[in-house]
Input
Amino acid sequence: MPIAADILEALRLELRRGTLILAVLGTLRAEQYGYSLKTRLAEAGVDIDEGALYPMLRRLESQGLLVSEWREEGKRQKRFYRLSADGAGALEQLTAEWRAMNAALNSIIEGGRT
Amino acid sequence: MPIAADILEALRLELRRGTLILAVLGTLRAEQYGYSLKTRLAEAGVDIDEGALYPMLRRLESQGLLVSEWREEGKRQKRFYRLSADGAGALEQLTAEWRAMNAALNSIIEGGRT
DNA sequence: GTACATACTGTGTGGCGCACACTGTATGTG
DNA sequence: CACATACAGTGTGCGCCACACAGTATGTAC
Output
């Protein structure tokens, strides 16, 4: 048999974990409501579960990285989120972190090649 | 005050999480024992705690991605680890995943720029 | 008007894996 | 003999995601 699929799947999930917040923060530079956020992320190739998304939005707002507002649009009440100033700062720092980690991983992965 | 340092630190840790396994698997294409692995990773810019490293090595071995062997070197018993064939396959797939996630994140982060 | 899809926002639980603190032996060195 | 450091662990707590579940509102086909 090939590598057990569930093991690989678990590793994939683990690898995805931290990137979710980065993707959410990056997308919320433009205002979005939950559902449109999920849709946009999916289009970019990032599938996020509602059970992960909504609590994450709450968390980020309680940390002051996001601000939200109930508003009517298209005959519906929706909660709109966007980055706060602190959130923009956090996004910048996390992006820098991400690039640094990328460099480290690339040096490791390319480095060992025969 | 700037963005609370502990919040950012937590986000950084979260972001790092998944990359640890990838860094470990990548480094173990060449045989290493725990301590030298930790040292090598640190040189590449990846600090990993022993409390994370050793259990991870166990886990990866129990999943068949690594093989290990006790051996004496420099008058000391050390446990040497290296990638198994399955591990090499997993590394390849995870690397591909990583690149895909990178592309997705880049499109998100660059994309929104004014 | 009723059945169904889908837009839209949530909650609760389980489990996995990292960080942190701690333990313990062996080797080398002043 | 004291101390550093190489080396390999263990145990606990906590954070966060996946998965399953819940519930309302709008549009549409019949």
Observations:
- The mean pLDDT of chain A is 94.
- Chain A touches chain B through 46 residues (CB under 8 Å).
- Helices of chain A lie at 5-27, 34-44, 50-62, 85-111.
